[in-house]
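Is this the right way to post structure tokens for a design question? Let me know if I should format differently. Anyway, here goes:
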């Protein structure tokens, strides 16, 4: 009896999914290296994006947010160094900017009794969370890095 291909394999054979996953791996790798090798201010300047494309239409924004968030999350789980919130946030921020979605990268912190301070990075498109927002509950927002173009007016 012939074995059915897995759902992941069927998804990967779709060239658009493959390109998106490849882009996510590259963005996560660059973000991880930048965070490891560069001063914090320089990393934030890499996130301070200039307009690269016209703003995405409202109808496409949700699809872009969902697909990029999923690609970054799936790839981060499977990479050998398991990138945490900061590289994931940078990668999603960069990838959505390429698609014309103006997101804000937010760096926050809160006191943690056992470790002192807990820091976290998340990305939002206006009020809509993109990646990492579920773990940001109770965080004080310390730094906002917006993309430099206005979202489209509905």
């Amino acid at each position: 009896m012939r074995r059915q291909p897995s759902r992941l394999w069927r998804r990967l054979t779709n060239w658009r999914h493959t390109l998106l996953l490849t882009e996510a791996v590259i963005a996560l790798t660059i973000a991880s290296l930048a965070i490891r090798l560069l001063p914090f201010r320089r990393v934030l300047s890499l996130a301070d994006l200039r307009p690269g494309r016209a703003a995405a239409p409202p109808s496409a924004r949700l699809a872009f947010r969902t697909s990029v968030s999923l690609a970054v999350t799936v790839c981060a789980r499977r990479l050998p160094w398991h990138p945490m919130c900061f590289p994931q946030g940078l990668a999603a921020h960069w990838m959505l900017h390429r698609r014309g979605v103006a997101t804000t990268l937010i760096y926050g912190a809160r006191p943690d009794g056992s470790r002192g301070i807990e820091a976290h990075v998340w990305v939002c498109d206006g009020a809509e969370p993109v990646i990492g927002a579920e773990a940001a509950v109770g965080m004080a927002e310390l730094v906002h890095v917006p993309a430099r173009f206005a979202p489209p007016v509905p």
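Format looks fine. Someone answered above. Worth noting: The radius of gyration is 17 Å. The chain has five helices and four strands.
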